[in-house]
Write a structure and sequence with these properties.
The chain has 173 residues and is an all-alpha fold. The protein is built from 5 helices and no strands. It has one domain (9-172). Helices cover 88% and strands 0% of the residues. Helix 1 runs antiparallel to helix 5. The radius of gyration is 25 Å and the shape is flat.
Length: 173
């Protein structure tokens, strides 16, 4: 092992710092609840678009081709629906905010595809009247969950920063 010039050592340290900073930025983006929810939303939108295209097909298709596509899309949607709870449980385990956002998005998608009936409109009005009494506890639970997520994210960021400092310190030696 030869001796390196101070300039070369400084350049290597700066290069290492840059790589560690980039790694830390990628890690922070990966564990961000907002980014996870965005990725899940993109997946849901992509699946819905694909399903719509498979169901609708092109205007020049024959009736038989359209029926076959509809059957395939129905089977695919059924399979996706059967697998969705398990997949969502794996993807959102330990992240209740992401699970809530995914469920909310799926509900909004389903609601936008199905028109309301008069009975549903009456039931919604009744539920809105009764929902006021439940809003307080729900807000409290959401606030507690957000606080826990904040604490977890803070702890993770502190640990990552400590690890970066340790690595940088080791490389300086």
């Amino acid at each position: 092992m030869g001796t390196a010039s101070p300039e070369k050592l400084r350049a290597e340290i700066e290069d290492t710092r840059s790589r560690l900073t980039a790694d830390l930025d990628r890690l922070a983006e990966r564990v961000s609840p907002r980014a996870a929810a965005g990725r899940q939303g993109e997946r849901v939108r992509g699946a819905a678009t694909g399903l719509r295209e498979r169901v609708m097909g092109s205007a020049t298709e024959s009736t038989e081709q359209a029926r076959e596509r509809t059957r395939q899309a129905t089977e695919a949607a059924g399979e996706a629906a059967r697998q969705a709870p398990e997949r969502l449980a794996r993807q959102t385990q330990g992240n209740p905010l992401a699970a809530g956002l995914v469920a909310f998005g799926a509900g909004m998608l389903a609601a936008s595809m199905i028109p309301e009936s008069p009975a549903e409109e009456r039931a919604a009005a009744q539920m809105a009247d009764r929902a006021g009494e439940f809003a307080g506890p729900v807000k409290d639970v959401a606030r507690e969950s957000a606080q826990r997520m904040k604490e977890d994210a803070t702890q993770t960021a502190k640990e990552a920063a400590r690890e970066v400092k340790e690595r940088t310190g080791e490389e300086r030696r």
